[in-house]
């Protein structure tokens, strides 16, 4: 068993003090990594079932034989790691706005960091996913206007509960149309949400994509003694 609590790194950033810590969680009986912004929890690997399902369900919706994939939001790397498990994936661009998170993966301070960064298919891109989705250049600055087979997004709590109000327009029809412009024909957009499936979200997706599904992903929550749920939307272009 590791020490009960250890602060692995902390940084002053323009948005506040960002820190990485690991602790032994008695309820789960395993080590947990957490990233905090000042006193608020930004993310943790307490529950990662739906993050993994985001990759699995998103890539399963594509019929392409080889896949160029974008993940929006690196976080603790579970979605990116699960995407790499699909042998069809030939390239993976992971866009992350916090340089510290990328660095912690590169230094192997996070459990999946060594594997993610050693995989020659992976590019960790320091940038704003929403600005890139909206731009003419797109997600690959080395190959401007490159189109992708799939974009897997887990940044906001949900399309209606965004981290920053500037993200809200992305989830409207016009924003989704611009994202679709970054995809190949038959391309897939998959989206993680902390909320139950929302009619407004599926309706906006259906304006742009030919096939839209919402999947409720449930998992055991030892803290409540019950089951918790997240939603994964998958949307496929014609
Ligand atoms: C919930 S976490 C992603 C968790 C990830 N799916 C996993 O499996 O661990 C969201 C991530 O998005 C990053 N982020 C926030 N705003 C962003 C933006 N505008 N562009 C890119 N990344 C952003 C956060 O720093 C954080 O690392």
UniProtKB/TrEMBL annotation:
GO biological process per UniProt: polyamine biosynthetic process
Superkingdom classification of source: Bacteria
InterPro entries: SAM-dependent_MTases_sf
Keywords: Polyamine biosynthesis
PANTHER family: BLR2883 PROTEIN (PTHR43317:SF3), THERMOSPERMINE SYNTHASE ACAULIS5 (PTHR43317)
Protein name (record): Spermidine synthase
Organism: Actinopolyspora mortivallis
Lineage of the organism: Bacteria, Bacillati, Actinomycetota, Actinomycetes, Actinopolysporales
